[in-house]
Write a structure and sequence with these properties.
Blueprint lengths: L4 E5 L4 E5 L2 E5 L7 H11 L4 H14 L6 E7 L2 E7 L2 E5 L2 E4 L7 E6 L4 E5 L16 E4 L2 E5 L73 H5 L17 E6 L5 E2 L22 E4 L4 E5 L4 E4 L3 E4 L6 H4 L4 E4 L12 E6 L2 E6 L6 E4 L6 E2 L6 E2 L4 E5 L2 E7 L4
Parallel strand pairs: 17-18
Antiparallel strand pairs: 1-11, 2-3, 2-10, 3-4, 4-5, 5-8, 6-7, 6-9, 9-11, 12-13, 12-14, 15-16, 15-25, 17-19, 19-20, 20-23, 21-22, 21-24, 24-25
Amino acid sequence: MTEQRIAAVPGNGLVYRDGDVVLVVGGNETPDDTLAERLIAAVSGVGHAASVRALARLLLSEPSPPPVAVVAIDGRTASIFAFGDLDIVAGEQRLSSSGAVLGVNEQVDTTGGLAVIAAGTSPPEIPSWASLRSGAVSGAGVVVTGGAPATAAWPAEGELADGTLSEPDGPSGVEDGPAPEQVRGEFEIPVVDEPEGFEVISLEPEPARREPLPIDTGSDAADSDDRDAVVPGPVYAVPVEVLGVRSPRGHFNHPEARYCWRSGVKMGSGRTKALVTGVRPPLGVVTFDDGSTYTVQWNTVLGRDPFMDDTVRAQTAAPLVIVDDSQSVSRRHVFLELVDWDVLVSDLGSQNGTSIKAVDSPERLLGTGERVVMRSGTTIRFGNRSFVYDEHHVR
């Protein structure tokens, strides 16, 4: 296995490395000195998650922010937050943050090489001696080449993110068809399962989770030495099985998906049109007016004190605490309900009401008891707060 190298792409912007975290600013344009210093301070010594939170706040405060990316490398994986006219190239996969209002957050496999470069450009040839060990240099992007030992296997389909991970003996295949052929391009990649295609990081502190009550199994259980007893989790976190289709690489998708939500490959072959039952993945993400995000993967109650809601008390819905000093948001204000592959929004009888604005539609108030399916780009306003919903599963 060759040594992994991190090198700057020639250009007038800024490339800064602090350990395994790399910051790219400006693309090929020279960034403002003051902003560059603030961005460097935001990513220095804090890790990827904290870097993304700090960068999001800085970018939201800038009237004309430059293209910015922060890359955190861990073995053969990289977590990337990109904003502005930048492309992420990992093997045959190419993702772009151009046009994304709040940027993109991706996790990719770096085994076959990785480049974060100006939108529409190709990864350049980097001399074998070029390597950025630490500090700041001029550059328009970053290129990662060479092998690196993997630290963990990707989660299996439907596996919770906090499950125990172990390195597989070999590439995972798909039971109902042969493994795809290895693709050779500017980077050479092995045929491996793809990482999660979209990762979101909340800028708000997570609400305290209430531990479930223990199950009374009788006096015999008290005398037992069974160390494998399982404590049940909340009902809302129980996996839900729905009908969907498998991508050519075996990932479970919406029946009408045009592209795989995890790998980005095009759907539509004969095998991908066969309906199968699988565990429903996260359906989308809501991005709040302060830049914080929340993954929509189960029923959720939003409000200043969502623990007052009966569904939260019964653990059939997750609580999401909304910070609102003006108290325009009710204690239990908005309900997000997952039905099959759809996310429905409704007002919980709040004092100030809830309005909805779909793309190309006028804004209106939700009626009492009304449940509306949200699509990508739908804006929800409740009190003085708001969020925009984006689907993971492109139709």
